Amino acid sequence: TDAAATHCQHGLGLYANDQLPAQLSAVFGHISIFRRLFNPLNLTDSVSPQADPCPTPVGEMCTVAEARQALDAVMARGARLVRLAPGNWDGDDSYSIQDARTEQFHVCRALSLWWQGFVALRRRLSSTSSVLESDAAELRLLETRWLASDVLARSCLAGNEALLDEYLDHFRRIVELAEQERAARSASGMRPPSFSFDMGYLPFLYIVSLRCRQLRLRIRALVLLKALSCSRETIWDACIAYATAKRVVEFEHGLSLDEERMRSASNPYPDKHLPYDAQRIVRFDLADEASLEADSEGRALVRRRICFHSSGPDGVVVGPSWEYTTMRL
């Protein structure tokens, strides 16, 4: 991850060249989201050389490509906001909670403005005689990205897991859009590639699996994550994301998930009580060490050590609690 982040930082150095063609500028804007999620925090970096301190989408978005590029800029800023949240500062104490709240206000405003422009763009496109399936797929993904970004931006400073229940409609809509995407791919016979340079549905279904507190919705997100994801989407690894999110759900709800039953419509898991704050996993770390094994049918499995941190009664992080998690290759 560190090497990939450093490589992205080099690319973003090229991004400072405002003579880049528009197509390459869009690519580097997308990369900046990853860099701000995984690289050490640096508030002096701007989202792009043209961005003001609080970039906001203004004007009419005429194409899907313009909508995507505008959202990339806001999501990069939102990723920085998430890193400003308490517990994510990586030991940097030079920024106060007030700094973070000011940043939150601007990010949420930018997301709201983008959504207004996106709704107008989608309305214009739907009024035409036909919408290309590629555009329809991109519109679904853009809405998914906005929904997840909106949840994280508005909740990341709260320190109260119950607040996430206010965004249950956002989580439901992400899952609905992913189900629409799965149906469209099934109808066309399309299968996800093994690698994608772009973020697809993986990180956003992962967010639903981790942050939503409703069991059935989390399970639906897990099933879709496995069905729709490339093996790797930029730095996101589908096997790791699925295995860790599944274990978090099991831990928080006090059960063991059977994959066949997870996919069953006739025998779904009942929605149990919502996990309390003290039951929630607030952070986990995956150790580098791994061992390769095989299941009873000879399929390859990897065992990785994972460290869970939960929230104590007073919001104090409790842990670490180490265990092994099995991941199917």
Please, how many helices? 10
Structural class: alpha+beta
Rg over alpha carbons: 20 Å
- Provide the residue-averaged pLDDT: 78
Order of neighbouring strands in the sheet with most strands:
1-2-3
Share of helix, binned: 40-55%
Q: Provide the β-strand percentage band.
A: 5-15%
How many individual β-strands?
Answer: 6
The oligomeric state of the chains shown is single chain
Order of helices and strands: HHHHHHEHHEEHHEEE
Give the N-terminus to C-terminus distance in angstroms. Answer: 19 Å
Shape from CA axes? globular
Largest sheet: 3 strands, mixed
Weakly predicted, low-confidence segments = 40-52
Description:
The protein has 329 residues and is of the alpha+beta class. Helix content is 52%, strand content 13%. It is built from ten helices and six strands; from the N terminus they run ααααααβααββααβββ. A three-stranded mixed β-sheet has the order 1-2-3. The two termini are 19 Å apart. About 4% of the residues have low confidence.
List keywords for this structure.
single chain; 329 residues; alpha+beta; three-stranded mixed β-sheet; three-stranded antiparallel β-sheet; 10 helices; 13% strand; globular
How would you summarize the topology of this molecule?
Layout: H1 2-15, H2 22-38, H3 64-84, H4 97-126, H5 133-155, H6 168-188, E1 195-196, H7 202-211, H8 215-228, E2 232-233, E3 236-237, H9 238-253, H10 259-262, E4 281-294, E5 300-311, E6 317-328
Parallel strand pairs: 1-2
Antiparallel strand pairs: 2-3, 4-5, 5-6
